[in-house]
Design brief:
It contains 11 helices and no strands. It is mainly alpha-helical. The radius of gyration is 19 Å and the shape is globular.
């Protein structure tokens, strides 16, 4: 483990933790502008986190230790997920220990903990949200795996750093399979991050909310950690999309000085991606919860088609 690798790893974690709320604020701001509304400040997520961390955490009398532990586990899973996704460099000491399959496993672990914690209190909304969250995860995870496998067929590896190095530093080529995978990944990302058309992060309507129903019983620092984890999840999915479909600008393992250029490139790509996400949400309508399985089944089908197209053209 060299010094440049440790520096790159720490830098990736710090960038994820620091920029994740900023990305959420950027998306919310553009979403309001596109809907001709008065937009909140881009720093609003930081202010919310500061306010929540300075408030007392109220916990129900019948809450178990799982309820208190879940926010820390979910936040830790999201930080670890961001640390193994190559955003500014491929020289990551943690990357060899976790590939794309382990990344999906981290998302699944966080989902299980937050769902169990939501059911721990025994409220109707928490149980409803947990069931809906597990349904979406059950359908979204296979589709996400198929998307990652479509990219791994090109690099012959499930390591995200190897995928980025292969796609970014080989001759420019058109991969029709990645087009199908890109559409499928966009659909999965919307579902996993509770965005329109699957869920609306700005609503608290009991019959439609999914993510908000999971955290209704949390307050104070526990709620702050869960909100921060949600921003980190959006950041992680954004970086996965950039790593698979726009991998250019990431520093190579033997080029530590390229980190200085990789950081502004990452910020620029995230800014463009945040604007596109806000525009997509503005142009979409919230679908009924019973249509979500069809939505995610379509994503899975597109991801599988991407794999088949690549295999057919590779012959």
């Amino acid at each position: 483990m060299n010094a440049s690798g440790v520096l790159s790893q720490l830098l990736e974690i710090l960038i994820a933790v620091a920029l994740a709320p900023l990305l959420s604020g950027w998306v919310n701001q553009w979403r309001s502008w596109l809907q001709n509304k008065s937009a909140p400040s881009i720093w609003q997520p930081y202010r919310m986190l500061h306010k929540l961390f300075n408030k007392e955490s109220m916990v129900a009398d019948n809450a178990s230790r799982l309820f208190r532990t879940a926010p820390y586990v979910v936040f830790g899973c999201m930080v670890l997920a961001c640390s193994i996704i190559p955003t500014v460099s491929t020289d990551l000491p943690l990357a060899p220990a976790a590939d794309a399959i382990a990344l999906v496993g981290l998302f699944a672990l966080a989902r299980v903990f937050i769902s169990l914690a939501a059911m721990d209190i025994g409220t109707a909304f928490g149980t409803m949200g947990a069931r809906r969250e597990m349904l979406i995860g059950f359908l979204a995870e296979p589709a996400l795996l198929m998307v990652l496998f479509s990219a791994s067929l090109i690099s012959q590896s499930t390591s995200l750093t190897t995928i980025v190095e292969t796609l970014a530093h080989r001759e420019l080529a058109i991969y029709p399979g990645l087009a199908f995978a890109g559409v499928a990944f966009t659909m999965v990302s919307l579902a996993e991050n509770a965005r329109v058309p699957v869920d609306n992060p700005a609503t608290h309507l009991e019959l439609t909310m999914i993510h908000e129903a999971l955290i209704l019983e949390y307050s104070g620092r526990h709620l702050a950690l869960l909100e921060w984890a949600a921003s980190l999840k959006l950041f992680a999915y954004s970086c996965i999309g950039l790593a698979l479909f726009v991998p250019w600008g990431v520093a190579q393992a033997q080029a530590p000085t390229a980190l200085l250029l990789a950081i502004p490139v990452l910020v620029l790509k995230l800014a463009v991606g945040g604007f596109l996400l806000a525009a997509l949400e503005t142009l979409s309508a919230k679908m009924r919860i019973f249509r979500v399985p069809e939505f995610l089944a379509t994503a899975f089908l597109l991801a599988v088609l991407g794999m088949l197209v690549h295999l057919l053209l590779a012959r």
